[in-house]
């Protein structure tokens, strides 16, 4: 018996949702679940309210602007309050029977529990506040307030003014916190803090000129900007005094196996361990080399004619990639080319019935703001669930500061074919589309406690899915570059684990990235920098992708399902940005319930 996947899930939702069954004295279990769900809804509402009181900057990023005028001081008192917050809400959560909740609420319960359990780890064990000076960058938090267009400009500036009152105290606390900084995180802080000052010296002052604030408040804000920039400069000078000694005496940026596994558990929220994902990535690298060799063999004559072959697989792949990579945009038109490709991707998704796209959700391609530069070449800045109609920014870092040699290396890495894969990943139907769906989730918990591995995994999955549906037609070049790009995802995991757990040196990292993953030198050097600045995050791409592919293939191979790709995508995305293991739990359980219901109704 074949039953459509969405039909199955729709039946299950009717069974499990609050109020779906009539209450009567004979249906005691139903009464208990309905009462439990109602109480749990109350807990979720109160939890989110308390969460934003504790984390006003996070709230602003999510589009909740009630506390825009507040700037928490990152001192021990604040950390103690967060520990108490974790303990208090875990106690309240424990009063509920997990199995007595409906499926949707069970996931919310687990997401809240995971978040609360992570707080002691980050404060008492990981202690990033002691060794990462770049975590004290206020540029983005003030930009979120200034950019909230639903408030009048004058109201935004009033909030900015109130927030600036605490900046000096904030950076005094930051100086107290920094005890054992790493050299690489200190370097990032110095780069980003200089860009962060532009938010105050340029954007806030420019906004002030456009406003109708009374003269006294306008003068106050001008003076506050000077004091704020002075506080930032004071922190910069503090770091510069520390910097010379860090090369020899700074904290090692490698966090080791124990911390890596624990952070992986809290941040990735996978059903696998970090070591298991690392081993799977090693196996996947071999498969990708096989595919790359096959395509390079087919393209050899077109690009290299009668040239002598190198006699080894990796050498042959590299030679073909080198030739294909010569087709790329000019350094001055890089951002323009990206803008042009977005509508083409939207058209392909619609024409091939892969996903419903909302035409009313704007996507703006822009140059990466200076305070965000130095970490990734391309990224998405999406509005939170409270501000769903705000613009989503596709940030692309221009090549202004690159030498001609560096720019050429970068452009060869993001050649005409790879650039299309990048845009699929970052925009359509990758991050941009997924985050629009996430904001539409009826559960605010699934949006605000979103999982990075699911978000990144979806973007990587969308690359494979687009090519499976013949994006690029029979063009072998895009297939070649896709496998090279996917190899990057796999090697991200190998690099991340290799550096922090196995102690990879820079030389070993370059061997992996340049020789085995065929990356350009500039890209590889950027990834080496990024892997030292972050931990575990680079594992998120492959982990999420691997789990999504497993789930899709499991459902597709089930003979009881009339599997429809678009329906799978939309159902998968309907759970917000939940960890894949919880989405899998939802979809499999709901399908089982619906199957039982369908059989009983025959």
Explain what this protein looks like in three dimensions.
- The protein has 602 residues and is mainly α.
- It has a domain of 123 residues.
- Helices cover 67% and strands 3% of the residues.
- It contains 26 helices and five strands.
- It has a three-stranded mixed beta sheet with strand order 2-4-3, with helices on one face.
- Helix 9 packs parallel to helix 11.
Describe what is shown at a glance.
The chain is mainly α.
Per-chain topology:
Elements: E1 3-4, H1 5-16, H2 28-54, H3 56-61, H4 76-93, H5 103-126, H6 128-131, H7 139-146, H8 153-164, H9 167-177, H10 183-210, H11 215-249, H12 256-268, H13 274-304, H14 313-324, H15 334-351, E2 363-367, E3 378-381, E4 392-396, H16 404-413, H17 418-426, H18 431-439, H19 444-448, H20 452-468, H21 476-500, H22 506-516, H23 521-533, H24 540-557, E5 561-562, H25 565-573, H26 580-600
Parallel strand pairs: 1-5, 2-4
Antiparallel strand pairs: 3-4
């Amino acid at each position: 018996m074949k039953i459509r996947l969405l039909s199955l899930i729709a039946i299950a939702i009717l069974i499990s949702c609050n109020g779906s069954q009539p209450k009567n004295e004979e249906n005691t279990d139903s009464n208990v679940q309905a009462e439990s769900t109602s109480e749990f809804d109350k807990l979720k509402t109160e939890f989110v309210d308390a969460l934003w009181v504790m984390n006003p900057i996070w709230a602003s990023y999510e589009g909740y602007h009630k506390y825009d005028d507040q700037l928490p001081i990152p001192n021990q008192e604040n950390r103690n309050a967060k520990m108490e917050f974790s303990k208090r809400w875990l106690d309240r959560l424990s009063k509920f029977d997990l199995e007595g909740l409906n499926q949707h609420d069970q996931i919310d319960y687990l997401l809240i529990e995971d978040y609360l359990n992570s707080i002691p780890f980050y404060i008492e064990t990981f202690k990033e506040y002691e060794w990462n000076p770049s975590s004290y960058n206020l540029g983005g938090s003030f930009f979120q307030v200034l950019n909230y267009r639903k408030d009048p400009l004058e109201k935004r500036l009033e909030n900015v003014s109130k927030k600036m009152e605490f900046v000096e105290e904030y950076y005094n606390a930051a100086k107290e916190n920094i005890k054992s900084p790493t050299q690489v995180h200190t370097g990032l802080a110095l780069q980003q803090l200089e860009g962060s000052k532009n938010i105050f010296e340029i954007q806030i002052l420019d906004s002030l000129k456009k406003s109708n604030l009374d003269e006294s408040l306008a003068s106050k804000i001008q003076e506050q900007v000077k004091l704020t920039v002075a506080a930032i400069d004071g922190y910069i000078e503090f770091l510069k005094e520390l910097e010379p000694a860090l090369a020899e005496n700074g904290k090692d940026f490698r966090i080791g196996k124990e911390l890596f596994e624990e952070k992986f558990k809290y941040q990735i929220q996978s059903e696998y361990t970090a070591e298991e994902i690392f081993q799977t990535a090693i196996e996947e690298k071999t498969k990708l080399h096989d595919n790359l060799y096959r395509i390079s063999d087919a393209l050899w004559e077109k690009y290299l004619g009668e040239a002598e072959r190198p006699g080894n697989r990796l050498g042959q792949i590299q030679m073909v990639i080198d030739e294909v990579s010569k087709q790329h945009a000019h350094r001055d038109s890089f951002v323009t080319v990206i803008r042009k490709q977005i509508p083409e991707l939207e058209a392909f998704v619609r024409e091939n019935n892969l996903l419903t796209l909302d035409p009313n959700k704007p996507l703006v391609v822009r140059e990466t703001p200076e305070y965000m530069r130095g970490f990734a070449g391309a990224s998405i800045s999406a509005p939170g669930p409270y501000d769903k109609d705000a613009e989503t920014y596709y940030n692309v870092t221009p090549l202004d500061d690159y030498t001609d040699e560096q720019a050429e290396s970068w452009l060869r890495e993001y050649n005409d074919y790879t650039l299309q894969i990048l845009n699929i990943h970052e925009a359509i139907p990758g991050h941009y589309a997924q985050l629009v769906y996430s904001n539409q989730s009826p559960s605010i918990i699934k949006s605000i406690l979103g999982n990075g591995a699911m978000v990144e995994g979806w973007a990587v999955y969308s690359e494979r899915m687009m090519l499976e549906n013949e994006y690029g037609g029979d063009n072998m070049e895009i297939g070649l570059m896709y496998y090279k790009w996917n190899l990057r995802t796999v090697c991200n995991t190998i690099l991340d684990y290799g550096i922090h757990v196995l102690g990879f040196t820079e030389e070993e990292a370059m061997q992996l990235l340049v020789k085995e993953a065929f990356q350009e030198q500039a890209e590889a050097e950027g990834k080496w920098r990024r892997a030292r600045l972050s931990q575990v995050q680079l594992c998120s791409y492959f982990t999420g992708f691997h789990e999504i592919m497993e789930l899709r293939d499991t459902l597709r191979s089930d003979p009881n399902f009339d599997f429809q790709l678009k329906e799978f995508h939309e159902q998968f995305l309907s759970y917000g940005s939940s960890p894949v293991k919880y989405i899998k739990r939802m979809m499999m359980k709901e399908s089982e319930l619906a199957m039982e219901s369908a059989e009983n109704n025959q």
